[in-house]
Amino acid sequence: MGNSFKIGRFAGIDVKVHWTFFLLLAFFGYIGYGTATRAGVNVTLGIAVTIAVILALFLCVVLHEFGHSLVAQRLGIDVTDITLLPIGGVARLKTLPDKPVDEIKIAVAGPLVNVVLAPIFLGLAFAFGVDLTSPPGLAAAQQSVGGALFYLGLVNIGLVVFNLIPAFPLDGGRVLRGLLAIRFGPVRATDISAAIGQFLAIALGFFGFATGNLGLILIAIFVFFGASGEQQMVRQRETTRGLDVSDVMGTKRRTETVSPYNNFGQVLDAVIHGYQVDFPVVEDDGRVVGMLTRGEIFPAVHSPDKFRDVRDVMRTDFPTIAPDADLFEEGTRLLQESGFRAIPVVENGELVGMLTVDDIGQANLLRDLRKPQY
């Protein structure tokens, strides 16, 4: 996930934090300042305790995501990373579960972690003599260790209840999709779950506007667009199921290449008179040594040194893929993760074609052509 940086690694899974997470800490620091002022607590201590409680809360979120991830690993599914966002955590699986029952297992594992954590925090809170006469919240958390632990226990209960709402892509929505997929298949099940999730998101958004709750509005936006994105991903997986990269890629004969020693005048001529805007850069011996994408071409057009050599501006940090690679599991994922719109297809060290975003979009047409005609 872009704009994130790694803070650790456990069980072979990178844990990352998105930069916007620190905006959340700053926001809660401000909330803690106001709460401490009203409660007559030392302001510095109040801010520090509030941030510590939020960090502890997000540690619970990380453990929740590891619940999903470790079960996914036991089922043979690789996990790319876990990323902390202001709205929670996201565990990225490299592949989607093929069996509905596996998706249910993975979805339930996260909330089960919070089911375990909640009584632990509540038990510790009572051991520290929590004051149940004061309403639970950040004010109580700032005033005693017991209050902070009691607050974390209640929040974990809230995480269980919230995540089990049948609003896709929340955990409850994934459980619902898994159950529906047993009867209707993955695409139809995703359509139904996504529709329910988006309906609940709209209702939650209206409630957030009516009550002036920005947090609910942000959650509603996340649920609405998350459901839409997941729906599109599942449809794409079913469209490309069973297809290899070689089934849809542009062959070497149809792929125009450039030399690292070409000047930009030659590249511009190829762009103007051809259909490509992303070019593999190939040495005389056939090795692919770089990629020249629209991201380099268009800015270079307006530079005063527009006729400099390709090797001066080409990208050398490019991925390649084999022609027999799975189109969805490897091709689509590699394009999404790299940010490229086209990647070279290489076999035995030589270029054999190009895989583009448009090629994947046309996979549905290829599948239709392959259907038996009666």
Automatic annotation (TrEMBL):
Cofactor: Zn(2+)
TM annotation in the entry: 12-33, 39-64, 106-128, 148-168, 206-227
Gene Ontology process terms (BP): proteolysis
Cross-referenced SUPFAM superfamilies: CBS-domain pair
Cellular component, GO annotation: plasma membrane
Annotated binding of Zn(2+), by residue: H64, H68, D171
Active site, per annotation: E65
Localization per Swiss-Prot or TrEMBL: Cell membrane
Gene3D superfamilies in UniProt: CBS-domain
Keyword set, alphabetical order: CBS domain, Cell membrane, Hydrolase, Membrane, Metal-binding, Metalloprotease, Protease, Repeat, Transmembrane, Transmembrane helix, Zinc
CDD domains in the record: CBS_pair_SF, S2P-M50_SpoIVFB_CBS
Annotated membrane topology: Multi-pass membrane protein
UniProt entry tagged with the keyword Cell inner membrane: no
Domain annotation CBS: ranges: 249-307, 314-371
PANTHER family in the record: MEMBRANE-ASSOCIATED ZINC METALLOPROTEASE M50B, STAGE IV SPORULATION PROTEIN FB
Recorded family membership: Belongs to the peptidase M50B family.
Protein name: Zinc metalloprotease
